[in-house]
């Protein structure tokens, strides 16, 4: 069965297929289950986005990034402009997945508080500037409060979909683009896996602090390591860093982990009760 809305793009998942095939192994986190499939049939669900958001993702986010993704997989140096475009792809990936929707709902109380504060400030300013329109202002404020109450009780998925647009988070995109990027390489066998929420950073640090780190698997043999410390663009990955990237990826997963092969170590990793995550060197 082919899925019509991929929250993990098909072209991205093709970098994690079994060598010389279109097959990909899917592991169910915490359930000791796995199955073999194809990228067209995993990493999404039907009618997950509106048609408008689906078009934005397809044409404005994924299409410009595909050629850059291929260059990285081919070990070709990328320009600063390409880095900017790929930063959009990465940060939108973190918002477009099911975990992005969950995080939005968790943030809703703070968003609601900020909206109420803004509403109150605007109301007071309007009254000060228009003392003869107090009754009309009170009516509009009551209507706005009722709308906010509905939002607080059940944050709308369509608001989350609006926030997927990269234009909503330009500062985060610029911050990621300014970080030092290093692509960790391991070619002897498929080393890296991915999941249904593959962009990892420590939430308590974000990406703008001196100690911030971000990891993002690029393919079975390459992973992005973004930090604020100067490094080479392409480096051979050591065993410790491969294991740390994979731990981060699996710890981030909501339900699905994707890997090129049927391997016991992946099953063990996906069924751990806890993950001890460390900063990389």
Describe the structure.
The structure is a single chain. The chain starts with 9 loop residues before the first helix and ends in an 11-residue tail after the last helix. Helix 2 packs across helix 3. It contains nine helices and nine strands. The model has no long low-confidence stretch (mean pLDDT 89). The chain has helices spanning 10-13, 51-73, 80-96, 98-129, 134-153, 157-164, 170-178, 239-252, 264-270; strands spanning 24-28, 33-37, 180-185, 194-195, 200-201, 214-219, 222-227, 234-236, 256-259. The chain has a five-stranded mixed beta sheet with strand order 5-6-7-3-8. Strands 2-1-9-4 form a four-stranded antiparallel beta sheet, covered by helices on one side. With 281 residues, the chain is α+β, with helices and mostly antiparallel strands. It has one domain (10-101, 163-270). It is elongated, with a radius of gyration of 21 Å. The longest helix is centred in the middle third of the chain and has 32 residues, at 98-129.
Q: How many structural domains? A: 1
Beta content: 5-15%
Q: Enumerate how many helices there are, as a single number.
A: 9
Q: Radius of gyration from the CA trace?
A: 21 Å
Strands, total number: 9
Secondary structure class reads alpha+beta
Mean pLDDT rating: 89
Identify the overall geometry: elongated
Low-confidence stretches are none
- Biggest beta sheet attributes: 5 strands, mixed
Distance between the termini: 42 Å
- Series of H and E elements: HEEHHHHHHEEEEEEHEH
Q: Reading side by side through the largest sheet, how are the strands ordered?
A: 5-6-7-3-8
Q: Bin the helical content.
A: 40-55%
